[in-house]
Amino acid sequence: MKTWQKGVILVAVPMALQLTFVVLLAVLLNKAEFEAMQEIHSKTIVSMSQRIGSRLSRVPSDLALFAVSKDSNYLHAFNDALTTVPDSLRGLKAMVSHDASQTQTVERVEKLSQELISLATQTKRLIEDDHIDQALSTFKSGKYSQLLSSLDNELKTFRLDDAKERKGKADILYKVREELKAAVAAGVALSILTGILLSIFFARGITRRLGVLTDNSVRLAYGDALNPIISGNDEIAELDRVFHDMANQLAESTRKQRAVIENAMDVICSVYQDGNFVAVNPAAVKVWGYNPDELLGKNITAPIFSDDITETLNTIKDIMVGKSAMTFENRVMRKDGTVVNMLWSAHWSERERSLFCVAHDITERKKYEEQLKRSESRTRTVIEKMPVGVVTITESGVIDSVNPRTESLFSYGQEELIGKPISQLFEVPDCQQPELVLAALMDKAYEKPSELEARRQDNSTFPAEVAFTKYLTDEGLRYLSTIEDVTEQHEIARIKKEFVAMITHDLRTPLTSIRGSLQLALSGGAGELNPAVTKLVTIAERNSTRLLKLVNELLELEKLEAGKLDILPEIVSVNLLIEQSIESVKSFATQSNVKLETQICDGTVTADGDRIVQVLVNLLSNAVKFSPKESTITINVVRIPNWLEFRIIDQGRGIPAAYRTTVFEKFKQVEHGDATKKGGTGLGLPICKGIVEQHGGVISVDSEEGKGSTFWFRLPDAG
Ligand code: ADP
Known about the structure:
By secondary structure, this protein is of the alpha+beta class. The chain has helices spanning 3-69, 76-95, 100-128, 132-140, 143-222, 235-263, 283-288, 292-295, 309-320, 363-385, 404-410, 414-417, 434-445, 487-522, 531-561, 574-591, 609-625, 673-676, 684-694, and strands at residues 267-272, 277-280, 327-333, 339-349, 354-361, 389-394, 399-402, 426-427, 450-455, 461-473, 476-485, 570-573, 595-598, 604-607, 632-640, 643-649, 698-703, 709-716.
């Protein structure tokens, strides 16, 4: 039963009792009132009958006086009886209507009164007619006294009935009064008793259960098992169930907490105000090498590295008075003698008078921090010593840091550059707004070195090779720029240009003429040469040819590097290119006893045909040069997605892995004798590379040493 229902009972039961009691009282009172009414009724009947009797009884005596005196005032009683008695009799009749015997009595009284009034009327008439004697004889005849006596007898019945009734009523009223008293006493006693019983019953039920609740809360506080769940479904039972649930959840969370503490990787401990350990979790074994039991009761200084004890104690004192930060670092000497770095997080509880600590092993972190510091310092030194300028720039184009080389390059002090816009250092043509300079610089030199005009503090400018890249930091995106002063390279280029011009005009022309003269001499144009001279002139002619080739190739390469080699692209047939190339090397191949084989391909490329033939001839000449006698060189062209791939496959000595990239660099040859024995310059492949790349293609070599090489290059497929 719910408490509110019990409350309702507590109020409703006494109320119902009191209501019953009130109803009982009302019934009794009603009864008493009824009896009283009956009495009044009876009295009224008696008084009415008496009034009739007295009115009628006065009629004969007043008539007698009237007869004697003839005074009409003595007719008053007669007239009064004449007018009022019939009404009174009607009233009396109505009042006794419920009682048959009394009704009959009234009817008899009515008859007697009518007889009396009729006799009186006759008498009055006799007196008025002056028959006094006759009238007096009427009185003497005793008729009146007879009628009055009969009337009195009849009216006496009412008095007797009233007396009888009154007696009966007195008994009833007494009884009713006694019943009322008894009912009041019983009602009061019952109400008090019910109130007391109900209060005891409910109070016992509630207080006993509340007692269980109180006991449970004490048990919870001391960690004892709770009382069994209170039965019922009232609020107290519900509260007890909720309390049990709460206790279960609390126990579960305590268990989890304990599991966390016991399985924690960090040492968790509490130290009493005297400095001794009072609790240590099992992590102490792993981190410090001590069993918790070995530390309990020992001073906190026991595991601490001797050099750090004083400072640790001072920090702990500060923490205890709330002065110092709650974290500190120190070193702990493990049981095996090794030292570990610890980061402590400590909290002083005034109530417990204890210090609660979590100690985290930061040895690895410390090591890493040290390494990081060293590496940072190394990086800083490298950047500071770098012979190129290094500038970091924020996302909004503001200079973030510069190295010393940048300061010297631009003649600015570091403090004059940091925080300034990057536009202060570079001239970007067609970009007048400083906030757009960064975007323009990125456009030109992001991850590709580009030449820009750099401006010094004194407004003088210098050519700089600049490259940008970007990286992410904690503070956001940053750009890194390397800046190299290429004034010197420009000077070298200028000198080189002059040198090339000099070679072109001053070396190539006489060389061509020397070779022509030597060839003329050999062909007998200047007369027959004796064998010894022929031999010498042949050597001279061969070397002048080689020298001229070298000069030509050097010039060509120079042009390629300067981007000055004219490329005249047109759609050319692949077959035609191959045909022309084979035509050029055919006699050389025949001389070397090497076979040339080709597979037809119907493709076309958009290229400068002469230049591609030059590449093919160079690769084919190399293949012939390095092929053994009677071997075969295959030329084929295959289509791969978006490209046409030209392949020159020989069965020669192959290219060692270490040379597969370097053979495309200037003057790089696999063997020292390749220049002299094979008449090479080491410039053929770099020229091929330059031409292919100028066509937007790629060139490379696949080779297996001793089994031949496949030199290949790809050109965009023109369909
Ligand atoms: P060179 O005028 O010396 O041939 P190249 O640049 O054309 O100059 O070639 C560079 C070097 O690459 C050669 O000297 C040779 O050592 C090597 N080489 C080129 N082609 C071949 C090949 N087909 N087989 C073996 N070695 C080769």
